[in-house]
Amino acid sequence: MENISPGPSCHIIKTDDADHDSESSVNSVNDLFTAAKKSPRKLFYGASGNGGGPPSSDGDIQEGTSIDIKHVPYRGSAPALTELLDGQTDTMVDTISLVRPYVTSGKMRALAQTGVKRSSYRPNIPTMREVEASGYEASSWLALAAPAGTSAAVVQKLNVAVNDVLKTPTVR
Fold it and tell me: Segment Disordered: which positions (predicted)?
């Protein structure tokens, strides 16, 4: 387990939805928290499901900042992201790798990372600790598993293949 390196999630919003006044003026976590405090229970955050990292991340944010936003659980990150893009929710927390194409294209704005320090993957995005929630941290990690009894040769071949992919500029 010493080779596991947790990665930060990212607090994001949709950037171009005229139906949600709060989104048009939200350029930072502080703006989001101000909007949430001004209109309690009027903002909705999508989450990948009850008990997962992102929903508890938003719950932790609410507890640490006294904001009151409505939790909308989905059956995974993809439906939550789709609903955010469609304007059905106002914000969500999910992995940087999931939201990268939408942030890069300008369809979403990354407000903050949830890790302890800025990610080398997106160093221009501040951490939650930097912008508002001083004790806040959430991270995630992925694993590749093989069935029990998989031969050492197959495990080694998978290890080499995965590490080769991880070295490519697109994945890095």
Answer: 1-27, 45-64
